């Protein structure tokens, strides 16, 4: 074989090797550029997450960042409530799925992450089959990644990302990015939770768990301003007093008195709507703001509360009250009875006084 032929082959192999080297260098440059971008993103993310103190907003931000950076069509953030993970924010999932999903430790992929505190990365159908995931049909390309959110060395949540828009499987780089994001998320969630608890403690009554006197006045002023701006139906307030509470305390003791206050607080809270503002006004007195509620409807609500308390058994351990526990309730309406926060409270107080004077255990609507 001639030297020219051999030389030509060597040159061809060299060119091919150089081309492969250049392709590898290009791949590494792209990979390096991606990692630099992700590092910048994570630094920006850490600052952004730690600046958010509202948990609902924070949850949505975490899911948005995760799905965007990994180029995914779907993602969710689940938080442990009681013994099950609940979806707190999601992208690409129906509202029905978000509301109905509850996962316990060991159940499915998220449950496995919760139980072990370890991430799960699945690249293909074979790896998915090994996990024995019952809901496999929802994974179009059989690839997803789930990572734990660890707070105080305990798994308190899970981030799930699946369905890359490109159709490619997730890889170790995606897993590494999501784990770092989950670490930042854990710090931010802890900070926001502490802030939220502190804020809640400032506006709630320690014994009953209801809003306190100060918060009631703040919200009443806000609700009346809202009525003025938007011309809504108005609002009603209930002033509620436990009949003969001092005698009850003297007869059964303060421990039983506290038990009674907690029990009545629970009844009022349970029977209230999401929009209602329920507070312990002071001592044995409660106050409820009923937004967009007319006189007739507010009287029905008040009468139901009165009936539920009258028929409730407030026994505790071996202590059983000899008499029924009853409520007197005064009702007033804005703007029918008054046009300011102080006056609407005054009208409800007068109605409560009428209920007391008329024999107690009844509901009275303010009358001129």
Q: Give the CATH topology of the largest domain.
A: Beta-Lactamase
What is the N-to-C succession of helices and strands? HHEEHEHEHEEHHEHHEEHEHE
The biggest beta sheet is recorded as: 6 strands, antiparallel
| Percent of residues in helices | 40-55%
- Number of distinct helices: 11
Shape: elongated
> What is the CATH C-level name of the largest domain?
Alpha Beta
Rg calculated over all Cα atoms: 31 Å
What is the residue-mean pLDDT, rounded to a whole number?
86
Poorly predicted ranges (pLDDT <50, ≥5 residues)? none
How many extended strands?
A: 11
CA(first)-CA(last) distance? 120 Å
Taking strands numbered 1, 2, ... along the chain, how are they ordered across the largest sheet? 3-2-1-6-5-4
CATH-defined architecture of the largest domain: 2-Layer Sandwich
Kindly name the structural category: alpha+beta
Count of domains: 2
